[in-house]
Amino acid sequence: MTKKDNNPIVSLVSRAVSPFIMLYALYVIFHGHYSPGGGFQGGTMLAAAVLLVRLAAGGELGQLQFKTSWGMPLGSMGVLIYFGTGFTALLLGGNFLNYHTLPLGSDPAAVRGWGILLVEIGVGLAVMGILVAIYDHLLEGDPL
Amino acid sequence: MKIVNYLILIVFCGLMFFAAAGLPERGDPNAPMNRPKSRAGSTEAAYYYIQHAKEDAHTDNMVTVILADYRGYDTLGEETVIYTAGLICFLLLRKRKKEETP
Fold it and tell me: pTM for this one?
């Protein structure tokens, strides 16, 4: 990352491909109920989309897309979404992480499905934020 | 030294094939992961998951149901492990203020 060639093709292609990787990552997260996928895989792909721009187009452009300081807050938010979903179920009279007491509908099985979706979103956000944060902080001190 | 490496590789490869030959047939109803009751008479967990995952959570992907619902506590632990790794990277490697740097 210290030595930059500023190759326009690599820079442009990485910037053009990154949103589509993010879109597919969202599909992987939200379609995890029906096909292989879920929070961990989708979060890794979201992080890959961010890291692709950082590696190919340089740190300044990467900062425009996703700031270094956003990584850990996003990861904390993901863990809090997961823990909060479980804890809300506990407060509303069920067991910890037993989603059917969440106020999302009347059919307990369907509510469980929504609870799984909430949890997967939390996992995805946490994995994305933390992977980007690890990369950024390992690179810290190196001029971007 | 290279010969020893290849020898170890071949021996472990043979070991893996030997172990794979002892696996149960695909779809064998008496295999431990498919039978409804264990030898002691209690209901097998895997059989329950396969039978009830769809109706318990309205979700077609059995793996998702097991990962996020039946074994949600385990996944929370996994996420905590990742979070701890990120937090330690942040605490050890972040850019400190000027006077703190050695």
Answer: 0.83
